[in-house]
Amino acid sequence: CRTRAEGYQPEVDWTRIARAVAAVSIPVCGNGGIETHADLLRMRDETGAAYAMVGRGAIADPWVFSGHLASRAEAAAFLLEYYRYLVACAGEPRSPVKRVKQLLRYWTAGGVVRDAEDRLAWLREEDHGAFVARLEACEEVAEVASNV
Q1: What pTM, to 2 d.p., does this model score?
Q2: Which of 13, 15, 67, 113 is most buried when burial is the number of CB atoms within 10 A of its CB?
Q3: Cross-strand pairs, 31
Q4: pLDDT (tens digit, 0 to 9) for every residue of the chain, 148 residues total?
Q5: In contact, 17 and 28? CB cutoff 8 Å
Q6: Dihedral in degrees, nearest 10, Cα atoms 37, 41, 46, 48
């Protein structure tokens, strides 16, 4: 729904996808501007696309496809599971922290990242142990709050 020259600008033109759907007899996969589950449904409804590709929206919230609103504990647990898997593969913690930070550049799920200032704090953390401890604290604080 955006040209190469338009890049990743926030404005999208789903009518381009709708025109493609109308022009062909095969299923069309639309993409662009999908940040939430509602966006995904709206794009498919407005364009007639049979499928949807989601890039940064899925990095920001892996539950975008189901519409599930992850809790802070669920979102932190997801990131910790990913981190631990990468440590098991890499055998050391530094590279896996960098990979998790790649997700956190866009992450919105569960309120793990509260605002732009908090995002910078996550991304600037240089001590991998402190980074992981902070994720674990998100998971634990959220679990305690849900048990109250």
Answers
A1: 0.81
A2: 113
A3: 53
A4: 777 787 777 788 899 999 999 999 999 999 989 999 999 999 999 999 999 999 999 999 999 999 999 999 999 999 999 999 999 998 887 899 999 999 999 999 999 999 999 999 999 999 999 999 999 999 876 454 455 4
A5: yes
A6: 130
